[in-house]
User: Fold CD48 antigen from Daubentonia madagascariensis.
Amino acid sequence: MRSRRWEWCLAMELLLLPLLLLATNIQGQSTREVIVLSGSNLSLQISESLPDNYKQLTWFYTIHQKIVEWDSGKSKYFDSKFKGRVMLDPQSGALNIYKVQKEDSSTYLMRVSNATGKEQEWKILLEVFDPVPKPVIKIEKTEEANNICYLKLLCVIPDQSVNCTWYGDSGPFSKECQSSVLELRVPEPQNYSKFYTCQVSNPVSSKNDTVYFTPPCTLARSSGVDWIASWLVVMVPTILGLLLT
Ligand SMILES: *[C@@H]1O[C@H](CO)[C@@H](O)[C@H](O)[C@H]1NC(C)=O
Ligand SMILES: *[C@@H]1O[C@H](CO)[C@@H](O)[C@H](O)[C@H]1NC(C)=O
Ligand SMILES: *[C@@H]1O[C@H](CO)[C@@H](O)[C@H](O)[C@H]1NC(C)=O
Ligand SMILES: *[C@@H]1O[C@H](CO)[C@@H](O)[C@H](O)[C@H]1NC(C)=O
Ligand SMILES: *[C@@H]1O[C@H](CO)[C@@H](O)[C@H](O)[C@H]1NC(C)=O
Assistant:
């Protein structure tokens, strides 16, 4: 029994070995990942230093599209959507991109030939995200029956490629808001959240909208404090106006 288990372990190890090698191979190829907000300026750069006295350096947008090539002390910029927006720093090999666009997302390739003509390649995965649009909470239903308040909220998101989370005053609700609908039954007046927030996010930005709850079963777009503040803004000048006339 014991030896069988040992054999089994050995077999597992033999199975795992190629997997580990694969992982280190991929690391050796060093694909970096860069995530940025659209509109920003960025510098694509490998983490290692360039080979000394390299002969040629080329940046590719895709395997078929060259962006810039440095050869014998000169940089040649190719006709691409990057023209006028990129600058190569031959010292570090960095590719500086101005006003990066969502469409610039790609796996970039940097190919370098060293003094003896041997080619080396690096990959950088660039992901560009637009800022998320602001969500708007739509109050679909507030209904009170038998001391239970039934709420149905809809988080309206113009762009669906974002993640959305509902928050109450005790933190996020565990339910994902895939369909962006939040349905709640508030059974007891003491166990309600003072507000409900829908937050949308992507890796570079986040925005939210909030509605406020007043027991037993009322929802409003702004809290009582805000309401008083806006009431004062309207009323004070009116009263002053009345006093002055
Ligand atoms: C990007 O660089 C340009 C030119 O140097 C500059 O005018 C602009 O303000 C920069 N934009 C950002 C978001 O840093
Ligand atoms: C060029 O690259 C090859 C392979 O990476 C390496 O063996 C060689 O030493 C390099 N030569 C120079 C001059 O850097
Ligand atoms: C309300 O209270 C009940 C029982 O005390 C609990 O199970 C439930 O999770 C609470 N609901 C909220 C939204 O906090
Ligand atoms: C949404 O969240 C998941 C899990 O956290 C993440 O893998 C994915 O990249 C996110 N999508 C966006 C667009 O932020
Ligand atoms: C909602 O957005 C505001 C700023 O607009 C931020 O201060 C707040 O932390 C956000 N709330 C959540 C739950 O993300």
Summary: The two ends are 102 Å apart (CA to CA). The longest strand covers residues 119-129.
